[in-house]
Amino acid sequence: MAGAPPPDERPARRVWHDPGGPVVIEGPVEVVMDDGSVVRSDRPVVAVCTCRRSRILPWCDTSHRERPGPAPPSGGRERDAQ
Ligand code: FES
């Protein structure tokens, strides 16, 4: 019988975007990197870089504050979970 799927009982994970900055997510968080590896943060709130300038990708290191504007094409350096 077709119909709507049952509602998901898990609590929704809250995500918000800091304009010009990171996406902030209630942790823990796992991020799948471009190479397929997975990095994890168990912090209660995690800032994921959207500008690609961070020296600790995928996490925001506040580098977006230093030079607003478009991200460089190569992005920043990647780092394992913190
Ligand atoms: S969003 Fe903060 S360093 Fe990229």
UniProtKB/TrEMBL annotation:
Keyword Hydrolase set for record: no
The Iron-binding zinc finger CDGSH type domain, residue ranges: 26-70
Classification via Gene3D superfamilies: CDGSH iron-sulfur domain, mitoNEET-type
GO cellular component, one term: cytoplasm
Pfam families (alphabetical): zf-CDGSH
GO molecular function, one term: metal ion binding
Protein origin, superkingdom: Bacteria
Keyword presence, Thylakoid: no
Keywords linked to the UniProt accession: 2Fe-2S, Iron, Iron-sulfur, Metal-binding
Stretches for region Disordered: 60-82
Protein name: Iron-binding zinc finger CDGSH type domain-containing protein
Lineage, opening ranks: Bacteria, Bacillati, Actinomycetota, Actinomycetes, Kitasatosporales
